[in-house]
User: Fold these one by one.
Assistant:
Number 1:
Amino acid sequence: MRQKRVDRGVGATFGHLILAGRASGQRLHLLARGGALISLVFLAFALISIAAPTALGGESLIVMKRLWTPPFALLIGVPVGLFLLITNVLIDSGTKSARARKAQALRPFIALGRNFLLVYFGSHVLNSLLRRSGVFGVLVGVFPCEAAAMWGMPVLSVIAWSTLTFVLNRKKIYLRA
């Protein structure tokens, strides 16, 4: 008999818990108990991987750097996984029409999720082009102060990319890997 391959990623683990909860008669209890257990285990792994090198006489591990470290991924993955569990319980309950009504609030996230590669790579390419051409400095100069520019540019970027993904989603145009 073949064994199923088990994904070891944080998101996959929470996803498997959600799927098991759907198949279970005690969905809420399973999700709450399982989510708490998974969260505690992953947080323990993160804390151990942060503390162990120092305890063993080595250099302390940098939790956040340009390349993600395992403890950083775990420390980010746990709250995101818990958020997914909670929203799944809130949205995926009730009649079919009630679930469809609740899912309408998720349409912006669905549009972003379907074109996430465009947003990710497009934002990097656009930032690079704007910085090289000098247009970025002009755009930043539009804001009244440095703090407004520091917050304003990312907000404008998120609005612009979100709008683009909404338009492309309506036209059913998706960038695929």
Note: DSSP finds eight helices and no strands in the chain.
Number 2:
Amino acid sequence: MTLTRMLSCLVVILLVLLALGGCGPQITGEFIESEVSFQAEDSEIAGTLLVPEGNGPFPAVIILGGSGPWDRNGDEDAGRVEALEEAGQPVFAVNSTYRDIAEALSREGIVTLRYDKRGIGNSTGDGGDFPEPSLRDLRAAVEFLRGDPAVDPNRIALVGHSLGGLWALMEAAQDPDIAAICLMATPAKPFGEVIIEQIEGMMTLQGANETEIAAIVTQQREIYAQIRSGQLDPAVFPEPTRTELEFVKAIMDIAGADYAREIMCPALILQGDRDLFTVIPEEAEVLKEAFNEGGNEEVELVLFTGLDHVFRPTAGEPGLDLYYEDRGPVDAEVVETVVDWMKATLR
């Protein structure tokens, strides 16, 4: 082969390699933000879709919020804020944890979807913290992404915070095509026990003695027993007690660890050691052990020092009053951990 022929071949090879390289996703660090909605049987769920600029299809992440009146961004529902302000009541500080994580992921080439729970923000319906409708809505969100041409349907992951982590576990246990899950401050034990631990923690912070705490815990366990036996029917109580008891009935025997044992996709567990609402580090460790017991070794646990339930810095003892203080954005190390892990896992 002549020198001219060899050079010609090299040029052709280089051009082919360059062309092939251009077929993959080109990550620019920018994304397109869209207001979207999807139908979930009796509700229309509203959310925010972030699609990276460049050539897809891209991996995708759905971000699931915790219990309470929190919108897609992790902030208190605007309608509730307005009502509280009119009544002269304090309002929780802007949080935006879910928005910050979503934007960081999408800057790195991952589609993200975060949505208002039913009855919150722009989503219709009610019962947004109850298992059955919440899981229906999540499955509708998964199908919504699977139908988007910008998304690789084989690389859809879930990030769940607190109660949202429980929904992520339940969904991944029944859908083996979920590619990965990240659990942030997610309980492992039966939720009824988690509620009792929260009661004990709150009462301790308020200065209650052991006898007072024991009495309340005994009452709470009696409520569980009466609900299970049918002696206590939530329907006979007025609101808001009725809904509160119906929620306890629906959630009290659901344990995250039971679902973790059934999941084989990679999992990341994140926990702050100043969490007021999740007993740590025991809950996170129980979750990791449950994954391992089911044969899943692709599990990583990261415990963050000095961070609370919404992964904000807490120098001293955790307390509810801190949630009314602006302590800045979600800890940068937490965001970096989620992004780096998702990039490596969904590559």
Note: The chain has a mean pLDDT of 89.
Number 3:
Amino acid sequence: MRTLHLGKGKLVDTDSLIGVFDLDITSQSHLTRHFLRESERAGLVVNAAEDIPKSFVVCREGEKNIVYLSQMATATLLKRAEADWLLE
């Protein structure tokens, strides 16, 4: 099982990964803001950021999509994921 470290010790299985999104860019869209707001209301948001979040990661866990807030930039998360894949 490959994992991706999001911050604050939170690891997610890369097989469950749906997408990694830049919070500054995507939050300009009312659709993204609505998605994040509704996810938070449903209790599906996990804060894995010790500081202001820079990105959010959506993972499929069971029948639900879980949103993880991360202080890591999307480029950093991509590099971490690629490094893990190269080690296999």
Note: The longest strand covers residues 55-61.
